[in-house]
Design brief:
The complex is a heterodimer of chains A (300) and B (210). Chain A is mostly beta strands and 300 residues long. Chain A has three domains: 30 residues; 134 residues, Immunoglobulin-like; 124 residues, Immunoglobulin-like (Sandwich), CATH 2.60.40. Chain A has two helices and 21 strands. In chain A, strands 1, 2, 3, 4, 5, 6, 7, 8, 20 and 21 form a ten-stranded mixed sheet that branches. In chain A, strand 7 and strand 8 form a beta hairpin. Chain B has one domain. In chain B, strand 7 and strand 8 form a beta hairpin. Chains A and B meet through strand 5, strand 6, strand 9, strand 18 and strand 19 of A and strand 9, strand 10, strand 11 and strand 12 of B.
């Protein structure tokens, strides 16, 4: 009888030891990743809210608790800007290499600015200070934030359709179809279109009039015939649709962007602005985007 | 008399439930189009389709499910309802701040027909009676949610125009039929379908009011 008790006791102790060791290993092996991308924000008011997402292997880790965060700082080159955390929400789970990863979204607010400001950086980071004295660093990718006070315009937007593609990475924006109506008494000439982030450039000579009807399978390459580019003009009282191709310096993701159009009418250059708008809503944590993933760095 | 009444009620219930679809939200989309010709949704299955697929099932089993796939992660594109509308019936342009909130939606949605039912108890819906565990893991593994999406934008709306946000998207459809057996007796049968939402695209459209 005593022999049985000792034997069962030993088995229980071994199982207990394995369970404790396994749990310790699990916490040591915490994986926390983010996907840097193109962040481009334009505010015509005095503040802006934006999201930074991450995936983590342990959904109960301290980094998933809103109350664990003390402060956030956006660092773009030499500039530092304090951010306010508005919310930290779970966004479900996804399987990666057989491991379940849990996605969370930090919603942050850029504080009030009264003047026009412009922040630009190709390699922006965000540091978060936690109540346990740890600091974690998120690689954001390229970051631009502008405040522009819009002027009245007789150029009227008809529509904006994003054109998506999957070159080198998962689904991302590769261009757009944008249409305007000219309510001036003179011809409008589109001089330039920008998304306000240097990671995305637009060759303004290739802005092309297009009568294509939007569908999800449209490819931006098929809309732009580089051998037959006319002037990007809109005659008085008429509407015109343009196809615009985006160029990227490096493979990256673009889901949300503002649009700033400089146009000439009556020998005066004027501006039409559209605040940043979410054109693509998708899960960036896919196999195709894996080369873009960056560790969230945890410092004690 | 009482027994006859119960039998009639049960018959009516059985007939009404035999091929009706317990639907996921994706079946409310305005338009769903497959890339592949001849591919169809569960709701469009004919009696011939069911019979053809049932005939591909292996024999009875002592306990559990027999399933067969008709489509496996077949790409579809769709158009959803208009998400937001601002109407300016006035005589001057308005510059309005609009916020649209995407309600929470699961990226994995399911539909079933016949006596295959849905398990609606959890946050993420699945099939009842353990059918999920019998399906291909690539169909069942993705269980993430797209949660509320706040989009703030300040935009000018001209007189007598309306501005709306339209949603297009892409997903994957898998469907087929299944039969459940208990002690070699067929206890449930019908069609199953899984829709995996991959990406939504939002377009801004402004048009003159009619």
């Amino acid at each position: 009888m005593i022999r049985w008790v000792i034997m069962i006791g030993s088995i229980v102790m071994v199982i207990g030891y394995i369970a404790v060791t396994h749990n310790r290993l699990k916490s040591d092996d915490l994986i926390m990743l983010t996907v840097p991308r193109v962040h481009s924000y334009l505010s015509t008011e005095s503040y802006k809210i934006f999201d930074v997402d991450f995936i983590i292997s342990d959904p109960d880790a301290i980094y998933t608790l809103e109350e664990a965060y003390e402060s956030f700082t956006l660092i773009t080159g030499e500039q530092e800007l304090s951010l306010q955390l508005k919310a930290l929400n779970p966004r479900g789970s996804t399987k990666m290499n057989g491991q379940t990863m849990y996605q969370f979204v930090l919603t942050l607010r850029i504080p009030i600015h009264t003047d026009n400001i412009s922040l630009k950086d190709e390699q922006a980071i965000m540091k978060a200070a936690l109540t346990n004295q740890e600091t974690i660093t998120f690689d954001l990718g390229s970051f631009a934030y502008h405040v522009i006070n819009p002027k009245d315009s007789q150029l009227s937007l008809n529509h904006v359709h994003n054109i998506a593609g999957q070159h080198n990475v998962g689904v991302t924006s590769e261009g757009m179809m944008i249409a305007f109506e000219n309510n001036y008494d003179d011809t409008v000439m589109i001089e330039s279109i920008t998304l306000l982030n240097d990671a995305v450039t637009i060759d303004n000579h290739l802005i092309t009039s297009s009568d294509a009807t939007f569908s999800l399978d449209l490819k931006i390459e098929t809309l732009i015939d580089e051998t037959n580019i006319g002037e990007a003009i809109i005659r008085p009282g008429e509407s015109e649709q343009f196809a615009v191709k985006f160029h990227f310096n490096n493979p990256t993701l673009l889901y949300r962007y503002p649009i700033v159009i400089d146009y000439r009418v009556n020998d005066t250059v004027k501006q039409y602005v559209i605040e940043d708008f979410l054109f693509i809503n998708t899960n960036p944590y896919t196999e195709k985007n894996a080369p873009l993933f960056k560790d969230v760095i945890i410092d004690d | 008399m009482k027994k006859i009444m119960i039998c009639v009620i049960l018959m009516i219930f059985w007939v009404s439930s035999s091929n009706t679809i317990s639907a996921g939200e994706y079946l409310t989309y305005e338009d769903i189009a497959f890339e592949k010709r001849n591919a169809k949704l569960l709701r469009d299955f004919s009696t011939y389709d069911y019979n053809r697929l049932y005939s591909q099932l292996s024999g009875r089993r002592f306990f559990g499910w027999r399933t067969v796939e008709n489509l496996s992660n077949e790409p579809v594109s769709f158009k959803k309802e208009t998400l937001y509308v601002i109407v300016n019936e006035g005589q001057t342009p308005i510059r309005q701040n609009f916020t649209f909130k995407q309600s929470q939606q699961t990226t994995r949605q399911v539909s079933a027909s016949g006596s295959i039912g849905l398990d609606l108890s959890g946050e993420i819906r699945g099939f009842n009676a353990g059918l999920d565990s019998q399906l291909n893991t690539s169909i069942t593994s993705e269980r993430s949610t797209m949660i509320e999406e706040n989009v703030d934008i300040h935009i000018q709306v001209d007189p007598m125009t309306e501005l709306r946000v339209e949603i297009y998207g892409e997903g994957l459809i898998s469907n087929g039929v299944g039969k459940q057996y208990r002690f070699f007796r067929n206890t449930r049968s019908g069609g199953w379908e899984v829709f995996l939402l991959q990406t939504e695209y939002y377009s801004i459209i402004k048009e003159a009011m009619e």
